[in-house]
Specification:
Blueprint (H helix, E strand, L loop, with lengths): L10 H8 L5 H20 L2 E2 L8 E4 L2 E4 L6 E2 L17 H5 L8 H17 L10 H9 L12 H10 L10 H8 L6 E4 L2 E4 H10 L1 E2 L5 E2 L67
Antiparallel strand pairs: 1-4, 2-3, 5-6, 7-8
Amino acid sequence: MVLQYANNSDLRCYLNNHFLELNWATKVRMAKEIASGVNCLHNANIVHRDLHNRNILVHDGRMMITDFGLSKSLENSTKSIVGGICAYSDPQYLQNPFLYKRDKPSDIYSLGVLFWELSSGVPPFKNITDQTEISLRVIAGQRESPVNGTPMDFLNLYNNAWDGNPDLRPSIAEIRDKLNNIAMDKIYYGEDIINEHYMVQSQHDTFLNEQGIISNVQVTIPSNLDIVSSEQDIIPKVQDTIPSSLDIISSEQDIIPNVQDTIPSNLDIVSSDADHEATTTK
């Protein structure tokens, strides 16, 4: 078999050299190309059985699947314990290598691990060199943690793909469909899901001008506003609706008049040294 020369080496080398240059649109495109290759195999009823970062070649930034040494038609497939890298291997196979017949869901598991690698830029279990230890961790259900900044749709996709139960893994057709509908606005950060559009809009709408006076404050900003005054400050006309625990801060000779009852919480209002009056508006 003669294959095309890949001028960017394999996926592992490519991520080592170019990961910081990749945005999420590019990462999703790379995932689509790998999934397209797996789709061709599965449509021909062939299982690769050894998908990992060294078997994905990169040519001009495009992904190509290679190394079909373990690939077999499902009609002729037999149980085998030859080959495979544990971190990418179906846990069912790792648990029963003499009994378990690797099939399409086995490739889907490997694909899920590859997708996580696209999100992180590093190989799975990179700090563990003992393949037996990796196998035991995978069998026990341990997976790599999500990476901050990952679109939630992409995270959920690879989580489903590397499910320990082969029956719960999506088909390659389902994976390709979901890859075509990845939303980029809901992003994973720790345990939180952040809407990036809201973050950008909030930063635009709420700001301090160069004199330290707050402008364009929106009423949707959360509560618990701390407004603290120094010992010489005078605070007139504070509305009854402002919480009793509210502290008011201004500089030493400032006076903060007309605090509106719509002042949102968690906002620190500080006046400048030039003693400008701070007027908070809706």
